[in-house]
Amino acid sequence: MTTEYETRYAIGQREAKQYDTQELRDAFLADKLMQPGKVYWIYSHYERFMVGGAVPLEQGLPLETLDALKSNCFSARREVGVINVGGPGKVTVNDTEYALDKGEALYIGAGDYAVTFYSDNADTPAHFYLNSAPAHASYPCKKVGKDDANVLHLGSPETANERDIHQLIINSVVQTCQLQMGLTRLYPGSVWNTMPAHQHDRRNEVYFYFDIAEQQAVCHFMGEPKETRHLFVQNEQAVLSPPWSIHCGCGTSSYAFIWGMAGENLDYDDMDKFPASELR
């Protein structure tokens, strides 16, 4: 099979307080998204959000529907966001072809689309990172190149969090129902990815970490502000962050990550912030 998936059910803060390290990782860490020659999905019960990866080699990989969706087509009632974090590739949506270099995105609106992922070279394959959320309307598919993104420069070297936020699939760039995605890259010498830490009570968020050098890692902080936990994350792994959890992270070297969100609010700044002095 070229498509596999697993289901993750929603977990509350009371249950999470009792988890040991392995139980936290089993519940919130996505550690096998990028598998050569496969499409892999996690069907999450946080906002019915899905997170996945596609790594085509010599042959294209179709976006196949899943038993859990109960539909004849994956995108029939869902919108899909694609960001390439690997070698050059392309995505076909029906008869339209979209070439995606590293750091470029594609929004696929809801509809009966035949979608296939390709790598230009199997020796340096594309790594397509995928997010999907239920859609109440169908909006046009659109490629978002590097020059199309809104770019925010935040942080400073003094606080070790100088970074560029590339808003790719966000309503000021492309119309969506609820899916929002972007890419944040830290400057050399900066390691903190999000400060102040914050929660999104009205939506979930998933952090996908990549471009982490070999033998390096990111410590991702989660949990309630007064009851924090942490997960050590390796390259091309993701953390599912429920609405009750903070999220921020610190790496042993610079890196990049993709954030993806879905919920009832499309306002990028809709968050409840917690300065470091309030965290426990």
Automatic annotation (TrEMBL):
InterPro entries for this protein: KduI, KduI/IolB_isomerase, KduI_N, RmlC-like_jellyroll, RmlC_Cupin_sf
Binding positions for Zn(2+) per the UniProt entry: H198, H200, E205, H247
Any GO molecular function: zinc ion binding
Superkingdom of source: Bacteria
Catalytic activity line of the entry: 5-dehydro-4-deoxy-D-glucuronate = 3-deoxy-D-glycero-2,5-hexodiulosonate
GO biological process: D-galacturonate catabolic process; D-glucuronate catabolic process; pectin catabolic process
Pathway given in the UniProt record: Glycan metabolism; pectin degradation; 2-dehydro-3-deoxy-D-gluconate from pectin: step 4/5
Cofactor requirements of the protein: Zn(2+)
Cofactor note: Binds 1 zinc ion per subunit.
Keyword terms: Isomerase, Metal-binding, Zinc
Enzyme nomenclature, EC number: 5.3.1.17
Class in the EC hierarchy, top level: isomerase
Function text: Catalyzes the isomerization of 5-dehydro-4-deoxy-D-glucuronate to 3-deoxy-D-glycero-2,5-hexodiulosonate.
Sequence similarity: Belongs to the KduI family.
Identification of the protein by name: 4-deoxy-L-threo-5-hexosulose-uronate ketol-isomerase
